[in-house]
Write a structure and sequence with these properties.
Radius of gyration: 19 Å
Order of helices and strands: HHHHHHEEEHEHHHH
Number of domains: 2
Number of helices: 11
Largest sheet: 4 strands, antiparallel
Structural class: alpha+beta
Length: about 220
């Protein structure tokens, strides 16, 4: 634990020295703990994943190459991300501010057809006051294609947007800073956007890949 805290501190200091730590309205809405978690994930992604995957490219070019490979179907979102970062994100409050997450799953008959079954999940969404609200998700599946045990385990990893969470509120606060941010936030408020679509939008809008907010959107909405 001490080693992890030391690593986190060193990466945060490195990021701040490179202009990556800011006290923006976005950060104020996220809160100190969530901002520190996100800063760590961005720094680790750049200094570990991108440098290993694209050792001969600068950071901006590495981001562009990564997005291009996603659009072309040549890479996956989590292929090569450190297990430590994935564990930190999964256990963080930041994840709960971004998503409503499943805490139990079960299977029921599909009331509309006997050709498939429904896998269902109870979700927990954190509210602005720190309390939790229960919700639900469901999806049809064919037992001939995937076993019940497999679909139950897979569905435990499914998430949906937390529309009351701090992340979406933070995005709204900075949505007027560019055409991309404005259009992206409007689309995100409607529903989930596929990661490869976001990657394509970022390239089509020709955004500044050194931008503080763009890096965080890539991290949250594409990598994780």
């Amino acid at each position: 634990m001490r080693i992890l805290k030391a690593l986190l501190s060193s990466l945060l200091i490195f990021g701040c020295l490179n202009g990556e730590c800011q006290n923006t309205e976005f950060d104020k809405i996220l809160g100190k703990e969530n901002t520190e978690t996100l800063n760590y994930l961005v720094a680790d992604f750049e200094n570990d994943f991108l440098k290993r995957k694209y050792p001969n490219l600068d950071t901006e070019s590495a981001y562009r190459k990564y997005l291009t490979e996603i659009v072309n179907g040549n890479t996956t979102t989590r292929n090569g991300i450190s297990k430590k970062s994935i564990a930190i994100f999964k256990k963080s409050n930041l994840r709960l501010e971004i998503y409503c997450v499943a805490d139990s799953t079960w299977i029921e008959p599909n009331p509309w057809t006997d050709k498939n079954l429904l896998v269902k999940a109870r979700t927990r969404c954190i509210n602005p006051d720190g309390t939790f609200e229960n919700g639900a998700m469901e999806m049809p599946f064919y037992e001939k294609e995937i076993s019940r045990d497999s679909i139950l385990k897979r569905y435990m990893n499914f998430v949906r947007t937390n529309h009351n969470g701090k992340y979406l509120k933070a995005l709204n606060a900075i949505s007027n800073k560019s055409e991309f941010l404005s259009d992206f936030v409007k689309a995100k408020e409607i529903g989930t956007i596929a990661f490869y679509i976001i990657a394509e939008w970022l390239l089509d809008y020709n955004v500044d890949l050194n931008d503080y907010y763009i890096k965080r959107i890539i991290l949250i909405d594409i990598v994780y």
